[in-house]
Write a structure and sequence with these properties.
It holds the Pfam family Bac_export_3. It is found in: Cell membrane; Bacterial flagellum basal body. This is Flagellar biosynthetic protein FliQ. By secondary structure, this protein is mainly alpha-helical. The protein has one domain. The chain contains two helices and no strands. Helix 1 runs antiparallel to helix 2. The N and C termini lie close together (12 Å). The relative contact order is 0.13.
Length: 91
């Protein structure tokens, strides 16, 4: 296994992690920003008002994007298993 192969696998794994976390993180960011704007406008500073909508939105994002996320992770894992012989120098 060469250094280039290790770097390539690391880059692919980081890219997959970014793709899989993006729907959840972007949803939490957008909802958190909207809630903070609402809190600033109304001057209601209740901590649960900031947490509950974000938690609900993240749950919805996981339900909506969950199947795609699992498919991406399974596809990446399958590709890794297919590349094992070539990574070990047998292919």
């Amino acid at each position: 296994m060469t250094t280039a192969a290790v770097v390539d696998l690391a880059v692919q794994a980081l890219w997959l992690a970014a793709k899989l976390s993006a729907p959840v993180l972007v949803t939490a960011l957008v909802v958190g920003f909207a809630v903070s704007l609402f809190q600033s406008a109304t001057q209601i500073q209740e901590p649960t008002l900031a947490f509950v909508p974000k938690a609900a939105a993240v749950a919805v994002a996981l339900v909506v994007a969950g199947q795609w996320m699992i498919a991406e992770a399974v596809d990446f894992t399958s590709q890794l298993f297919d590349r094992i012989p070539s990574l070990l120098g047998a292919g």
